[in-house]
Amino acid sequence: MVMKQDEMLKQQAYLAVEEKGESVRKDPYYPGYHLAPPVGLLNDPNGWIQWKGIYHLFFQWMPFHAGHGAKFWGHYTSEDLVHWNLEPIALTPSDWFDKNGCYSGSAVDADRKLKLFYTGNVKDEHNQRESYQVLAESEDGITFTKKGVKIELPEGYTPHFRDPKVWEHNGRWYMVIGAQTEDNWGSVVLFESVDLEKWTHKGILSRGNEKPFTNLGYMWECPDLFELGGKDVLVFSPQGLEADGIDFNNQYQTGYVVGELDYKEARYTHGDFTELDRGFEFYAPQSALDDQGRRIVVGWMGVPDQDEELQPTVKNGWVHQMTMPRELKLMDGKIYQLPLNEMKELRSIHRNNTTIEEEISTEIERTSEIKLDGEIESIVLFDYSRLIYDRKRMILTLERPSYRNGEIEQRSCILKNDLEHLHLFVDHSSLEIFVNNGEEVFTSRLFADPSNNSLKIKPINSAGLQVWDLKNDTIKQENYKR
Ligand code: FRU
Q1: Is the pTM for the entire model greater than 0.70?
Q2: End-to-end alpha-carbon separation of the chain, Å?
Q3: Averaged pLDDT of the chain
Q4: Average pLDDT rounded to a whole number, residues 303-315
């Protein structure tokens, strides 16, 4: 009997996990409580949804090597956003319409089914790209059946047309797609449907050369449009922005605009573009609404083409991880990102609870949470990365050695308020810093010497310090073949 392509790809991927999974998980840089690939490369979060009470997070996955290629959809589930299970592979690039990758997309709950929309990436015999928006469905949330192409490339765009994000509004379905116009501007396109089968192209909601923008990039990836604090927020990842002082310092950006979407006229009026995260690695986030009404976002802790192949885990057969899930709030037109309450579940030992009046030097676990109340002059983590605060200019800067040549590189932001709170989550080779209750966030990978546990903190006057050891065993990968 001839094995079907889908089954064959699954077997090959499972074999890769069996052969290399253990050595990947033993890597001292492998995260303890963040989601990472069992082997190979992980990029964008996909299909993020709470469905029938269970949180599903799919991910762009290349199981065969720690680089990009014909992507699969890997799958994690959770009941509480802290404990996660790796599930069987959701999608493989096995069909004519997705043979070069089941690219990014989203999930909705409809007709008691979990429905996924994703981009089928195809390269023809002349290496020309084709793009199809594809539907796949599941009754149990684990096994998916592809239902074929629902949207073909409309006129006016290049085949850089991908990453459908679908949502419901007033009894109709809407979809935004990240696109490149024929004259090479990044844009976001709106579609509408009554049944998730037949889709109408409603037009462009925003583009890189139209007000308020003059030059916001040649391609916009992974759009996400949602209601937050009474406004319509569009988060997207534009490519082709020039660095501008402390802004836009990564290879590609991720940010948002705040505005109003007129669904009838398919017109979106919005303000300027603001970066969502100030760290070295953050891209392609996706949000979902949960049953407590929270808008929860997960981002990819990586940036395409940003020296990915130089990350030290590549030689050990894996690369990249997700951010923690975070709650989004809109206050005074600005997005705040907060660690979820559930993350307190991760705490094991309350290692420090003290007030510091002068520089201290201590040791922490590689999975730790650190809370600081008060103004801080500097924090040095693992003698590798430094956070410094310029109080006069209210500029906060994160430093680390570059993957390329070891020279110190920086990412900065200007605070709106005095520095009062810092909340750090450390996980083996990653750091997420929440500043002033989510006013700014720095997300970064840190490949410090794994045997170095040093933490040095210098307060400006005095500061309250709390440190917790965090659990290391909340993600299970052994049930994936069930
Ligand atoms: C963003 C992205 C998406 C695409 C996917 C492919 O990182 O380039 O636009 O769908 O990754 O893996």
Answers
A1: yes
A2: 23
A3: 97
A4: 98
| CB 27 less than 6 A from any atom of ligand 1 | no
Q: Which of 116, 131, 221, 320 to mutate to test the pocket of ligand 1 (most atoms within 8 A of CB)?
A: 221
pLDDT of 324 strictly over 90: yes
Q: pLDDT tens digits, residue range 137-147?
A: 999 999 999 99
- Give dist(CA 369, CA 139) in Å, integer: 38
71 close to ligand 1 (CB < 6 Angstrom): yes
- Show the domains of the chain with their CATH numbers: 5-339 (2.115.10.20), 347-475 (2.60.120.560)
- At 62-116, the pLDDT tens digits run 999 999 999 999 999 999 999 999 999 999 999 999 999 999 999 999 999 999 9
Spatial CA neighbour of 283 closest among 306, 305, 301, 263: 301
Catalytic residue among 6, 27, 44, 290: 44
Pocket-testing residue among 71, 163, 319, ligand 1, by greatest number of atoms within 8 A of Cβ: 163
Non-local CB neighbours of 8 within 8 Å, separated by 6+ positions: 94
Query: Can you tell me which atom of ligand 1 is nearest the CA of 44?
Result: 7
Close Cβ partners of 114 (under 8 Å, ≥ 6 residues apart):
49, 51, 56, 107, 137, 138, 139, 141, 144
| Ligand 1 contact via 430 beta carbon (within 6 Å) | no
Quick one: which atom of ligand 1 is closest to the CA of 221? 9
Ligand 1 centroid from CA 307, angstroms: 16
291 is catalytic: no
Do 268 and 205 form a contact (C-beta atoms < 8 A)?
yes
Answer whether 44 contacts ligand 1 (Cβ < 6 A): yes
Distance CA 279, CA 301 (A): 10
Structure tokens belonging to residue 134: 């594809």
Q: Pick from 167, 170, 422: which is nearest to 287 by CA?
A: 167
What pLDDT band is residue 466 in, cutting at 50, 70 and 90? very high
Distances 343 to 38, 299, 325, 368, 468 between C-alpha atoms, Å: 22, 16, 9, 11, 12
